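Sanity check

After download, print the first record. It should look like this:
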Amino acid sequence: MHICHVNLASGFAGGERQTVNLIRYLAAQGCEQTLVAKPGNPMIDEVSGLPVKVRSTSHFISGHSRGAWDLIHCHDGKAVYWGLLESLLRKTPYIVTRRVENPLKNKKVTRAAYGRAEAVVCLSRAVRSAVQRLLPEADCPVIPSSFSGFPADPDEVAKIRSRYVGKFIVGQVGSFFQIKGYHVTIEAARILASQHPDLVFVFLGQGPERESLEQQAQGLDSVEFVGHQKDVGSWLAAMDLLVFPSLQEGLGSTILEAMQHGTPVIGSNVGGIPDIIESGRNGLLVEREDAAGLAEAVHKLIGSADLRLQFVKQAKLDLEKFSPEAVGKAYLNLYRQTI
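Expected structure tokens:
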């Protein structure tokens, strides 16, 4: 079986990490694989030690010299059109992974690209609903993202915790865009400031809205922006609590990473987040843009070490279905059914 993975993203974010995770799993199963990616994309370096052929192309209309693959797996929005062209040129079947909850554009070429696919894999039930609003007849199996297993260095974890001695560390990780809900967390921090002086909110990330968020947080000693951190695993392990108040989310793989490190999580009740968090069982859910609700949930977990431990233990059990092996097996089964 020869699988051609196509990911034409310009950068390296969650979808690209998931592409690499899957390639690694399939390599261990002996699958022959090719990766089509933009020149210089970090995915190419990530798979350099694996038995994977690499083909570079800057646009979905190029890079279509004859290949001997059995199936094309399109991992991002641009790759879908590369797969469509290959299907028209060579009649090679292709599947698509849809990672975002945004509705598909009601355009002829979009309907053709997604409608011709053998399957449109969706990360969550919410993503599937968004796809089927345009393509109600589409085959849309749900296969989630996997956790990546970001390592935590015990020395680095101790160093981070020593930086906040005597503090209860609430963290948030992600790019600084409104959709990630940092403004909600800042308002929750303001609500909690007088009641919990031992609380610190630590924001990891970068993005265009950092300046406006820093202005919003003026006067709050409990909020700290630490920028982009390469050692995300150590930061997650050092946190007492992760908040994830996104306004929209396909799934929320950062939640999985936090759970793997034994960090309890509060997320917003949107998109695919409820596919991970069952409120009151392995974490807490709050409503979209509800700063008061988020503050109440943080207050609840600060006051109950037993509840935090309960969530952590249950989350560890629930993580099995999000392991790279479980997700890889699901894709491998789909490939076999498709070819």
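If your output differs, re-run the checksum step. Summary of this record's structure: The two ends are 9 Å apart (CA to CA).
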